[in-house]
# Entry
Amino acid sequence: MERLHIAFFGAVNSGKSTLVNAIAGQQVSLVSPVPGTTTDPVRKAIELPLGIGPAVLIDTAGLDDSSILGAERRRRTLAILDQTDIAVIVRRETAADVPDIGTLAAQAGIPVICYTRGETVESLLARIAAARPAEVNPYLTGNLVQEGDTVLLVMPQDSEAPKGRIILPQVQVLRELLDRRCNALCCTPESLAGASASLRERPALVITDSQVFGLVDRSIPKDWPLTSFSILLASAKGDIRTFTEGAQAIGRLNSRSRVLIAEACTHVPDTEDIGRVKIPNLLRKRVAAGCGTSGDSLLAGPRIDIAAGNDFPEDLSPYDLIIHCGACVANRQTVRARTRKARLAGVPITNYGIALAYLQGILERVVIPGPAPRKEG
Ligand SMILES: Nc1nc2c(ncn2[C@@H]2O[C@H](COP(=O)(O)OP(=O)(O)OP(=O)(O)O)[C@@H](O)[C@H]2O)c(=O)[nH]1
Ligand code: SF4
Ligand SMILES: [Mg+2]
# Structure
């Protein structure tokens, strides 16, 4: 998800697959003179030279595919734009650009490169290197830590945690802290008191799983900077200001409101699942309390819909609020595209970490990373 996503768009038969194969140096996609050979997006993870680094090449179906499934193929191709860091529009020497893709990409703030058959791969790669957005690979911990700092990590290992391994956001943050030459002390909520007491000095940062925000807030001194894995992910990938503003909409929910919980992956839900169980219950309790009914009553609304994986509703207008997961498996463009769609639809959007901080009354206390220095390499 941290790879630079480079997508190739154009008319059928324009040479998209030939170009992707030439860059990859292997047959990633089928090439043929038959228009409409590529029907679904084809992805290839690859390491590119000239400082571009880890990338994903995405070959797509021709945008002018006029076959019976053409409209559906076009829809799937356009959906790729939501994951794209750089759009390459491929065209034959004589043919015109496929209308609207360049405009759509530009509207979404995606750098567009026009490639005409005959240009060398080396020349195209040099243009891609120059267009590479600086923020593709930021540090999750941003400006909150520096070399030599001690960071305390609170990582619950409850029934929701996968057996025998540590979840991706925690692994990413741990690896990053080691890269940044910080000292990481990991504990569970149960061992937090002992871990805190073992520290001779105040840690530079405490990073917790958002689900135990309230407990960690009460357990550590008020002057210890506190954030969550989910907030770090959100600020590296999304628009944290929009998310923070969006959380205020929680206070306006009532029993007739409709909330979309959006997750970037399709995992098997658990009995303690944060998106399907914990956040919905907290929202219902809050609304029930606001209605004067028992705070424990889970009967009152709001109505909650779940969208997982690539399924993100095209029509967001029925919703009063969208709460997105940390999107650890999605790239930055995906989160930005969803945030943009929510903004266009006039629907507040926030994320799990910010919503949980708000629901536990500690959003004010939470620290949010500033712009991160770019990763080396
Ligand atoms: N002469 C020449 N032929 C090319 C070039 N690039 C592609 N072709 C030929 O054009 C035809 C279509 O190439 P593809 O790479 O399959 O084109 P595509 O854009 O992926 O086509 P669809 O998957 O059908 O949308 C094939 O016969 C290729 O051999 C090129 O740079 N020069
Ligand atoms: S993509 Fe979202 S729901 Fe899936 S594991 Fe990552 S943060 Fe959780
Ligand atoms: Mg093709």
Remarks:
- The first helix runs from residue 16 to 24.
- DSSP finds twelve helices and 13 strands in the chain.
- Residues 234 and 240 are 6 Å apart (CA to CA).
